[in-house]
């Protein structure tokens, strides 16, 4: 999708958020700018304390930015209270009203908007159907399971047809299997409703499987924005590569470079062509990153770009992880997908070589 | 709250064992409650029985009772026996005092609720470390005797008191405003005495309130007023009920406050009953008045609890 200024659901421009006063000041968000497109499933991903929830709360209106503006369809909403923003939130704790039934919870937003009773009833029925909770509409929220509460929270936030739906780690309280189900469910709801979803999570797998685009955050800054594939295959910084998926880090020296590609020499004198992100000029000693599945083992150490000794083999069912102690002393993991026709078997202690796929290695900022 | 009923099939052997264990536990619990029950029996139930019996006896001329059955005490509550022809004539004097006491108690409860709720909300929204200090401040009045504090109010509101002196000194008024020995004085005294009893249960209820629910309501387009009426008040209902009971019941039977601030002119039930045991020398009448008060409170309570606890949903 090309960048179209008019098609942005949310534009965050130079937003800073400082908590505390004087010596205790903490910048939870340090001048963040990001555009979120209409109908997009956009994820804010980062470790706890990175500022992702703060950014979400600023968009929802629970907090107000210290500086900067937040535009919703081109209009600055930063000074508006939450009840004047066409934005709804699914809370991590669900925050369902315990003194109301499931149906009353779902209808609450519409009721507050002063919609006629018939319209509320019709919309609540529609929402109950959407999240498959028709049978439990008269239940109290304390009488339903965690997964069901999650669905009610979703229905409640979607019922007023917000322009943007904010989701604050909504799946973190669910068990693994339910979480998987809800991931698919959320994606379905987003497709069916056509509402822009802004999803906050610290779970990189969740982010990769559900998002159209991801913003990776750390220490109050956005480090990279891109599609899951962008983020995974072409991380912009070492932090991004490290946070998303498993990564090998290898030391090397830049010997020559042309735009976008550097030739890096290992201690073993072998060289490799490695891409690097725009706006970064790698020189001298650098760190290469290689995804475990972008490398493969060869039985003959001489045939590999680098070589080492197999220290551990971990079987995962779908694939196997080979831990290699490189001759230079670093640890390197190779992930190999298991198949019926695996011809070579390896044993721990064997000397092996490691080959890289094309474009497997990248040089990144530390 | 209703819990899902167990179907007979789920009552397995394990459940039966559990039921037996619960029964044994209940027996032990009953034993533990014995000391409290004995105290309540000796100092609560027994005196109540004595009052019941005395209310059906005849007053002795110099206080005490004569052991002779009579319903005169109850008749005297509403009627007076004519000295000459022995007929009963309706006299609403006591009834008026009862109604006035109810009015005082109701107004006290309502104003305490209106003043206490924002106070309790303020306390509950302070940082946790500060809250205990606020609770301490609220309980400071309990450290000195109510009688002393009521006398202090008297000194503040009397004609030569702090308020009138200040207003005259400032030239706002020429003559003191009479406040002492009026209904206003009684009302003020009751409010002062019972406000903490409203604030504390409200606070304990509001403190447990999940403030994320308030955020959720704001997020769902509720204005501040709607958040108050639809979320905060329904969820703090237990505190409101407890606070209202703790203020209304003792306010109804207040004795010291109306005695001192009402100057014995504007009587409340408590003073009336005390009078029967003192200058009135009519113990049976005092007992009957006390029992009628108790019956009235019980009836009021019954309707209050039935109307508030059942339908918490529709706030």
From TrEMBL, chain A:
The complex is composed of two ATP-binding proteins (PotA), two transmembrane proteins (PotB and PotC) and a solute-binding protein (PotD). Residues 10-244 form the ABC transporter domain. This is Spermidine/putrescine import ATP-binding protein PotA. It is an enzyme of class 7 (translocase). InterPro entries: AAA+_ATPase, ABC_SmlMolc_Importer, ABC_transporter-like_ATP-bd, ABC_transporter-like_CS, Mo/tungstate-bd_C_term_dom, P-loop_NTPase, PotA-like, PotA_ATP-bd. Belongs to the ABC transporter superfamily. Spermidine/putrescine importer (TC 3.A.1.11.1) family. It comes from the Bacteria. Part of the ABC transporter complex PotABCD involved in spermidine/putrescine import. Responsible for energy coupling to the transport system. It catalyses: ATP + H2O + polyamine-[polyamine-binding protein]Side 1 = ADP + phosphate + polyamineSide 2 + [polyamine-binding protein]Side 1. Keywords: ATP-binding, Cell membrane, Membrane, Nucleotide-binding, Translocase, Transport. SUPFAM superfamilies: MOP-like (SSF50331), P-loop containing nucleoside triphosphate hydrolases (SSF52540). One of its GO terms (molecular function) is ATP binding. The lineage of its organism: Bacteria, Pseudomonadati, Pseudomonadota, Alphaproteobacteria, Hyphomicrobiales. Its EC number is 7.6.2.11. It holds the Pfam family TOBE_2.
TrEMBL record, chain B:
The keyword Cell membrane applies. Keywords: Cell membrane, Membrane, Transmembrane, Transmembrane helix, Transport. CDD domains: TM_PBP2. It comes from the Bacteria. The keyword Transmembrane helix applies. The chain crosses the membrane at residues 31-57, 97-121, 133-157, 184-206, 227-249, 255-274, 286-305. It is a multi-pass membrane protein. Residues 98-304 form the ABC transmembrane type-1 domain. It is found in: Cell membrane. It holds the Pfam family BPD_transp_1. Belongs to the binding-protein-dependent transport system permease family. CysTW subfamily. PANTHER family: INNER MEMBRANE ABC TRANSPORTER PERMEASE PROTEIN YDCU-RELATED (PTHR42929:SF1), INNER MEMBRANE ABC TRANSPORTER PERMEASE PROTEIN YDCU-RELATED-RELATED (PTHR42929). This is ABC transporter permease.
């Amino acid at each position: 999708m090309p960048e179209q200024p008019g098609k942005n659901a949310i534009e965050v421009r130079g937003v800073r958020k400082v908590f505390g006063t004087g010596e205790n000041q903490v910048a939870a968000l340090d001048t963040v700018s990001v555009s979120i497109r209409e109908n997009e499933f956009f994820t804010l991903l980062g470790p706890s304390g990175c500022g992702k929830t703060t950014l979400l709360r600023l968009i929802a209106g629970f907090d107000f930015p210290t500086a900067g503006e937040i535009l919703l369809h081109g209009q600055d909403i930063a000074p508006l209270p939450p009840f004047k923003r066409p934005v709804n939130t699914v809370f991590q704790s669900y925050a369902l009203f315990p003194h109301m039934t499931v149906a009353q919870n779902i209808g609450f937003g519409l009721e507050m908007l002063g919609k006629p009773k018939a319209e509320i009833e019709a919309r609540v029925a529609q929402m109950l159907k959407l999240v498959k909770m028709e049978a439990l509409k008269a239940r109290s929220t304390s009488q339903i399971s965690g997964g069901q509460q999650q669905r009610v929270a979703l229905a409640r936030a979607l019922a007023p047809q917000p322009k943007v739906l904010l989701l604050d780690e909504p799946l973190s309280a669910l068990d693994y299997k339910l979480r998987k189900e809800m991931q698919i469910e959320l994606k379905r709801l987003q497709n069916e409703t056509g509402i822009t979803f802004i999803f906050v999570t610290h779970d990189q797998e969740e982010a990769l499987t559900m998002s159209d685009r991801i913003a990776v955050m750390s220490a109050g800054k956005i480090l990279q924005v891109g599609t899951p594939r962008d983020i995974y295959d072409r991380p912009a910084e070492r932090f991004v590569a490290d946070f998303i998926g498993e990564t090998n880090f290898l030391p090397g020296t830049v010997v020559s470079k042309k735009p976008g590609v550097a030739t890096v020499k290992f201690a073993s004198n072998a060289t490799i062509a490695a891409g690097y992100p725009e706006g970064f000029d790698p020189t001298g000693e650098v760190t290469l990153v290689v995804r475990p599945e972008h490398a493969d083992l060869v039985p003959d150490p001489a045939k590999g770009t680098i070589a080492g000794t197999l220290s551990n083999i971990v079987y995962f069912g779908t694939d196997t992880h080979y831990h290699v102690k490189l001759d230079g002393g670093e640890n390197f993991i190779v992930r190999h997908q298991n198949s019926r026709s695996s011809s070579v078997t390896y044993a721990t202690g064997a000397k092996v070589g490691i080959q890289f796929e094309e474009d497997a290695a990248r040089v990144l900022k530390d | 709250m209703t819990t899902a009923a167990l179907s007979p099939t789920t009552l397995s052997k394990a459940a039966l064992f559990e039921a037996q264990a619960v029964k044994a536990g209940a027996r032990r619990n009953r034993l533990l409650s014995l000391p409290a029950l004995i105290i309540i029996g000796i100092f609560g139930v027994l005196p109540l029985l004595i009052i019941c019996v005395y209310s059906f006896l005849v007053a002795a001329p110099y206080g005490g009772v004569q052991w002779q059955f009579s319903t005169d005490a109850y008749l005297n509550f509403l009627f007076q026996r004519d000295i000459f022809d022995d007929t009963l004539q309706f006299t609403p004097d006591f009834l008026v005092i009862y109604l006035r006491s109810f009015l005082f108690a109701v107004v006290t409860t309502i104003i305490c609720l209106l003043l206490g709720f924002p106070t309790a909300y303020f306390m509950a929204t302070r940082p946790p470390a500060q809250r205990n200090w606020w609770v301490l401040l609220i309980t400071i009045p309990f450290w000195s005797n109510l009688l002393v504090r009521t006398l202090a109010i008297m000194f503040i509101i009397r004609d030569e008191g702090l308020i009138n002196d200040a207003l005259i000194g400032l030239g706002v008024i020429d003559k003191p405003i009479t406040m002492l020995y009026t209904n206003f004085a009684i009302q003020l005294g009751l409010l002062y005495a019972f406000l903490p009893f409203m604030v504390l249960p409200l606070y304990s209820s509001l403190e447990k309130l999940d403030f994320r629910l308030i955020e959720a309501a704001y997020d769902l387009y509720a204005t501040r007023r709607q958040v108050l009426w639809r979320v905060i008040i329904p969820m703090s209902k237990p505190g409101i009920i407890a606070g209202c009971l703790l203020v209304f019941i003792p306010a109804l039977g207040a004795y010291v406050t109306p005695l001192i601030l009402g100057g014995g002119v504007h009587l409340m039930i408590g003073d009336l009953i005390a009078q029967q045991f003192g200058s009135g020398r009519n113990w049976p009448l005092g007992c009957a008045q006390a029992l009628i008060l108790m019956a009235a409170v019980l009836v009021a309570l019954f309707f209050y609890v039935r109307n508030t606890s059942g339908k918490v949903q529709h706030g």
